[in-house]
Design brief:
homodimer; alpha/beta; 11 strands
Chain lengths: 342, 342
């Protein structure tokens, strides 16, 4: 029998809280029997939203939280001081083992800080990376790190490559996922100081299928499954990817509405276009997990709608079923053992 | 009267040499009287191509060069040893003041190394950046650096911001160009070590119109005119931008050819779409100048066709007319003076 996954959902995080968050929770609960959602936030607001829907009342509960972390708050201070916030309270629910996973559309910084300090790291993990799935022409790749480690050390990248490989193999189902490091060229001698130091370590690493460097141009083509980089570069990739796609789609839509002729043309290709563009839609993949913690912590877009919330919740179910954290813990233990032996 | 601009054109560089290079030269010469092109490369191959066209023979000449720098060659070694290569010979023509500008679709590394060592830097310029123009929803921005300075120092970024501003103001005609630094958030305390060090220096700099950080998402929207970053990040932006656009356009074209209905639809919107997408086409802007040298050095895409070569040559004419190098030299002198005073 499939395991039940219990998720603490920050009902107050993001631009569309609580209405889209609550809607996403209801849709997830109605989509699978394997999930139980704990909505954390101002209970009167959550109840008001819940009234609109039909769902199994045994699988949605509410934990009242009176405070909210705002975008402008300093992550470290907010996590330390706003103990009554929905984000912090939801993380404590995971820490106390009353939930398996945490999902929030709130402040990335607070999620990263709170994830590490409240939920805690798996033993041996140096810096937990935030690793969104990005859509490509061939399917999906994991971009690791695009979180807080903007000045990374080479050994961080090796751990990220291993964790990303486990994720792609066990959650996405890609055998021997191809790992590549983001670089300014494909030749081995290229790169900045970080890449030059990390490249030989990745090459030596036996636990991964390292295929060398990837130029940013090849990312949308899906030329690697696990794309390793420091979080500054990862953030640039993630945001530019979204920005370019959205600007281009806006441009194309503008063309289609130009005159009567183009409007008729648009009607004829609309369905096919919608299908294709759906494949390139990041919200289909349900957010970015913070990997390497004692529990699953997932950040979704600040402007997430119910669809992304629902997909993130369903991804949590898969994560739990695949026991990824045990696999990561095992991989880290092996690393430690090898270090002692050498 | 407009000044004549003499360009040394590497006829053997890039994937489509010499045929597309020669064609681009002919088209430029036929488009304006203010240009004289010196085609550098294997003369028998160049002559064979030139036979195909009608043009003013006084304004295209040939300098024979028997060797070619290949993509796999180490830039430093190639520039040092392949003295008879088209790339090196063309750079010497600029150094000897027999040309004002150099254009090549050849190895970026060799152009950067050769530009600095053969043509030489303007006094005071620490690291000449490669600064392509990138198309945006609002027009065009300059991305500075996307060349060789992958591990940049904060003071390099200040010089790049100044040089980029001069370029955008005098070549593109944007008054008080908005300068922004690529960052992972807009708050002042965000960033990696380099950005955190460069930010306050940019803020203090009186010669530029610094508007703060720009997230990669906003770049395609044209939210800044001068986009400053280290060359690793710049390279990622440039290549991902091109890669995402090309994958997306391929996807859309695929949709349009799906069935009879979509094909008819495609016919109706084709013209409008083509017009719009042309605005987003990087080859319209004629390559990336290496700024801060004693002469203009321009790198075009390795796969450049005649259109991009022609546009690069025409950009050289504008560069010469605007006396950008004198403006940069003046700005560097001012910097030196301010340093002495402080």
């Amino acid at each position: 029998m499939a395991q039940l996954c219990r998720v603490a959902l920050d009902a107050m995080g993001g631009d569309n809280a609580p209405c889209e968050i609550v809607k996403g929770a209801v849709n997830a609960v109605n989509a699978t029997n394997n999930i139980e959602v704990n909505l954390v936030g101002k209970q009167e607001l959550i109840k008001e939203q819940l009234k609109k829907y039909k769902y199994n009342k045994d699988r949605i509960k509410i934990t009242d939280a009176r405070d909210v972390i705002e975008t402008g708050d300093s992550p470290v201070m907010a996590v330390r001081r706003k103990k009554e916030s929905s984000l912090v309270k939801a993380l404590y629910i995971v820490k106390n083992d009353e939930a398996d996973a945490f999902v929030s559309a709130g402040s990335s910084g607070a999620i990263i800080v709170g994830g590490q300090t409240i939920v805690g790291k798996i033993k041996g993990v140096e810096r937990p990376p935030m690793a969104p799935l990005i859509p490509t022409a061939k399917g999906v790749s994991i971009l690791i790190d695009s979180g807080g480690n903007v000045d990374a050390r080479p050994n961080f990248l090796i751990q990220w490559a291993k964790m990303g490989s486990l994720y792609m193999e066990h959650i996405i189902g890609i055998k021997k996922p191809r790992v590549a490091i983001v670089n300014v060229g494909v030749e081995e001698e290229k790169g900045n100081a970080l890449v030059k130091a990390a490249y030989p370590l990745l090459k030596e690493c036996k636990d991964i299928n390292f295929i060398g460097s990837i130029e940013a141009r090849e990312i949308p083509n899906g030329e690697a499954d696990v794309i390793v980089c420091d979080a500054f570069v990862g953030n640039v990739i993630l945001k530019l990817y979204e920005g370019t796609a959205s600007t281009l789609i806006k441009t194309i839509k503008g063309c289609m509405m130009k005159n009567v002729k183009t409007k008729i043309g648009a009607l004829l290709i609309k369905k096919a276009l919608k299908q294709e563009l759906k494949k390139m839609d990041a919200t289909e993949y349900g957010g970015a997990p913070l990997i390497g913690l004692n529990g699953l912590v997932v950040k979704v877009h600040g402007n997430a709608k119910s669809k992304e919330i629902k997909n993130a919740l369903l991804q949590c179910v898969k994560f739990k079923q695949q026991n990824i954290n045990q696999l990561i813990a095992k991989s880290m233990k092996k690393e430690e053992k090898e270090e002692i032996e050498n």
